[in-house]
Amino acid sequence: MSIKVESANVSINDEYLKAERERAAHAYKDLQTGDIHMTGWVSLPDEISDEKLDAINAAADRIKADSDYLIVVGIGGSFLGACSVIDMLDKGRGVKVLFAGHGFDPVELDETLKEAEGGDYSCCVISKSGGTAEIISTFGIVRERMLERYGREETAKRTYVITGADGYLSDLAKAEGMITFGIPDDIGGRYSVFTDGGLLPIAAAGIDIKALIGGAKKARKEDFDAEDSFDYAIMRQLLNEGTASQDGTEKTAEIYEFYDRKLVMFGEWLKQLFGESEGKEGKGIIPMSLLFSRDLHSMGQFLQQGSPIFYETMIRQEEDPEADFTVPDFVPQPFAGMKLSRIERSMETGVTNAHVSAGTPVITIYFNKLDEDSVGEMLYWFKVQCAVSVLLLGVDPFNQPGVEAYKSEMRKAL
Ligand code: PA5
């Protein structure tokens, strides 16, 4: 197991912790039996066949051979998994993946199209339901541009449709002979990063999807056997109910904190995973994310002395970064001659100490490094921790009845 969890200012009575650990182990067992709906993602890493991964890699190779860019049209769970993995692991070994359809912003779409049109491009549209407004409208615009440039037959060859439903997208794909992939019925968007919808864009970016799945398999095999395997899932609920915080206040916000810009979109993925799984029935912890040291210069004051409604979950990489610099000698002490990474480590320690001294509960989650193995492990680990934690709260982690409300209001406004 390479993920480690530490905590400060979290106090749980031994008897209570023992009982919660038993409940958490039970919830994890329930996830695996298949008795709970929408849990296809739990065994997915072990069930994905080599043939399936080869088929995804073959499609990705084709994209790499005929395109400089891949426009991925998707939103929410059909966007955040792939986008966060690509941000964490992209080494420029594949095509440049451009994301579109995660909003209606025409200026952003115009910029994306202009960038793609600077070379050759393909398009991958991902929609489990096949009918999401942002996706359908954006895909139509991208397709129109492709038809103008490539003609009908070539556009079809350059279009990859990933959907889990019958309807417009699957009908179009069939009629035009486009390459199609699927999203299983029993896997919701926020748990879908290891489905075709996550893996095709990731593979097109030149990232090793077999190694990524290998990391998830490792998590499944090694990370959930120990007595304390679910302490993160437990701590967040007990902090929320106020029993684990030293000042007895209910912590209603969880702030994910990162020290590496490459993890910013991973923070967005975590926000969807936890926010959409937990925030229902008037319950839930609001997830937020910050990038340090940038945001210490805007939010550091609040974190140190503001309203004590939150706890912090720092996500830290154990290995030193790949690149580094030494601060030149002409710069004043104590910085002269220091490695930038060394200064950053001191900042990480300093921030933790200062926030712990202020009495804030701080959970620190260490992962090994930014490679396929560690990222695959981390994605799977968080999905399990989230599901277990939300089950402990007594809420269904796998539905999202509230997201329809704004959509129906939008339809009325249209
Ligand atoms: O997790 C979810 O269910 C959502 O974020 C969806 O992924 C998002 O709304 C896109 O839906 P679809 O893939 O059905 O177009």
How would you characterize this protein structure?
Helix content is 50%, strand content 14%. It has two domains: 4-33 and 215-393, 3-Layer(aba) Sandwich (Rossmann fold); 40-207, 3-Layer(aba) Sandwich (Rossmann fold). Strands 1-10-9-7-8 form a five-stranded mixed sheet, with helices on both faces. It has a five-stranded parallel sheet with strand order 3-2-4-5-6, with helices on both faces. The model has no long low-confidence stretch (mean pLDDT 97). α13 links the parallel β9 and β10 (362-367). It contains 15 helices and ten strands. It has 414 residues and is an alpha/beta fold. α4 (80-89) runs antiparallel to α11 (264-278), α10 crosses α14 and α11 packs parallel to α14 (372-393). Bound molecules: 5-phosphoarabinonic acid. 5-phosphoarabinonic acid binds at residues 75-78, 127-129, 132, 135, 188-190, 276, 400. 5-phosphoarabinonic acid is lined by residues 75-78, 127-129, 132, 135, 188-190, 276, 400.
Question: What tags apply to this protein structure?
Answer:
single chain, about 425 residues, alpha/beta, Rossmann fold, 2 domains, 5-stranded mixed β-sheet, 5-stranded parallel β-sheet, 10 strands, about 50% helix, about 15% strand, binds 5-phosphoarabinonic acid
- Per the CATH scheme, the topology name of the largest domain is Rossmann fold
In order across it, which strands form the biggest sheet? 1-10-9-7-8
At the first level of CATH, what is the class of the largest domain? Alpha Beta
Give the tally of β-strands.
Answer: 10
Cofactors, ions and other ligands in the entry: 5-phosphoarabinonic acid
What proportion of the residues is helical, as a percent range? 40-55%
Radius of gyration: 22 Å
| CATH H level, superfamily name of the largest domain | Glucose-6-phosphate isomerase like protein, domain 1
Q: How many domains would you count in the coordinates?
A: 2
Oligomeric state of this protein: single chain
CATH architecture of the largest domain: 3-Layer(aba) Sandwich
Query: Which percent band covers the strand fraction?
Result: 5-15%
Helix run count: 15
**Rounded mean pLDDT score:** 97
Supply the helix-strand structural class.
alpha/beta
* Shape verdict: globular
